[in-house]
Amino acid sequence: AGADAIVVSPVFASNSPSAGQPMGVEGLRRCVQATSLPVYALGGVRASTVEALTGSGVVGFAAVEALAV
Asked: pTM for the full model?
């Protein structure tokens, strides 16, 4: 419906009050495979989890808590 990209969340466990059950990297891969749009990962993305996104098909990631100072 005119979207340029999709943000999928939560991939990993998150402290966000709006975060639901994390889908994990395999769930994220299924989302990537289900669309032709670029997919960004969000939810629990931090230094200790970002490497797990390698090979998932996402074009990038977004983070909130990991960037908070």
From this structure: 0.89
